[in-house]
Design goal:
By secondary structure, the chain is an alpha+beta fold. It is built from eleven helices and ten strands. The protein has two domains: 100 residues, Phosphorylase Kinase, domain 1; 213 residues, Aminoglycoside 3'-phosphotransferase, Chain: A, domain 2. 43% of the residues are buried. It binds adenosine-5'-triphosphate (ATP) and magnesium ion. The site of magnesium ion has 4 residues, from loops.
Length: 327
């Protein structure tokens, strides 16, 4: 089945079919930033603001990276599940899923909400947002017990979205890391935790002291250490990139763990696996199919050295700061 591409015409059709279209001339449609993996549109009328999202078949990166578009349904189901079980406005509420066109419609956050990433890269590093992000992550991890063994399990999608582009691609390009990356891959699927899969500052929208999570298409069952490592990794990458804010970003990385621990029993084995994953993700965001855009060649060398060191030697408790400052 070929589905229509998400554009203004498709938006108006979906609105009309759902009895939500009064006057098409009042509706404005504009693309939102990011959108590596999906077409994301802000759709506004004087009465409401929605976000329409349709997954791309091929991601907009240099490497060839394709993921089945059924992930739109996964994102919708995940958003519904999270919205039902987390405190209000922990995630952007989802309004509908159009199965034929593979489009998910969300409530748009009001003007003024920005990705946490923007604030961090401008040097605004607020520990309370890091704490909240860690808390939200801990709450999500705590929801695993509400699920049956096979619910929210999307092994194949996780493979296409994370294992192949991050771990296996990196293993081919950095062969000395291959053994560790292979172990992490096997270990991931040996766990039945609930994993968000894309807990990064671009997917945490903020306004003042508030923070909400979006972009749930990677959600699956597996090792939640992956999430802890993902968020830590983004803060560590920024700490390497922004020397002036290094200490504050490393504090924020520690605050994420404190936030997580405030709602979730501390599990030393999970923290140790998160350290290994941190080594892997540092390498993956330089050598995998989704490289971060802001690192200089020299910073990439530092990140590679750091990732390999963490994979080879692990980290002692509380030592992310030490190894980053030594890198
Ligand atoms: N509900 C929302 N309210 C306001 N802005 C939103 C909302 N959902 C998404 N956005 C904006 O659109 C951008 C892209 O959305 P999203 O992360 O869901 O798409 P994506 O294709 O998975 O993006 P990426 O691959 O860049 O992570 C977000 O970074 C955010 O700025
Ligand atoms: Mg996103």
């Amino acid at each position: 089945m070929t589905r229509p591409r998400l554009d203004r015409e498709t938006v108006l059709t979906i609105l009309a079919e759902n009895d939500a279209l009064d006057d098409p001339s009042e509706v404005t449609v504009k693309p939102l930033g990011g959108g590596v993996s999906s077409i994301v549109l802000l759709v506004e009328s004087p009465h409401w603001r929605y976000v329409f999202k349709q997954p791309r078949e091929r991601f907009q990166v240099t490497d060839d990276w394709q993921v089945p578009t059924e992930r739109a349904r996964v994102e919708h189901d995940a958003a519904r599940f999270l919205d039902a079980h987390l405190p209000p406005y922990s995630v952007a509420p989802t309004l509908l899923y159009d199965a034929e066109r593979e489009v998910v419609v969300f409530e748009a956050m009001p003007e003024g909400w920005v990705p946490w990433k923007e604030r961090l890269l401008s040097g605004l590093v607020e520990p309370h947002l890091a704490h909240q992000a860690g808390r939200l992550m801990g709450r999500i991890h705590g929801l695993a017990e509400r699920l049956g063994d096979d619910e929210m399990r999307h092994d194949d999608l996780f493979h296409a979205q994370r294992i192949d582009p991050y771990l296996r691609t990196t293993a081919r390009r950095v062969p000395q890391a291959a053994r560790h990356l292979d172990e992490l891959e096997k270990g991931f699927f040996a766990h039945a935790g609930l994993v968000h899969g894309d807990l990064n500052p671009k997917n945490l929208l903020t306004e003042g002291t508030r923070l909400i999570l979006i972009d749930h298409e990677v959600m699956t069952r597996g090792d939640p250490a992956f999430d802890l490592a993902t968020l830590t990794n983004h803060l560590v990458l920024k700490a390497i990139h922004l020397p002036t804010h290094r200490e504050a970003l490393l504090d924020a990385a520690e605050e994420v763990r404190r936030g997580h621990a405030s709602v979730h029993p501390v599990d030393p084995a999970l923290l140790e696996r998160a350290d290994r994953w941190l080594g892997a993700l540092l390498l993956a965001r330089v050598h995998g199919k989704s490289p971060v855009e802001y690192l200089s060649p020299q910073e990439k060398t530092i990140v590679t050295r750091l990732g390999l060191r963490i994979l080879d030697e692990g980290l002692g408790p509380g030592s992310v700061r030490r190894v980053v400052l030594e890198a």
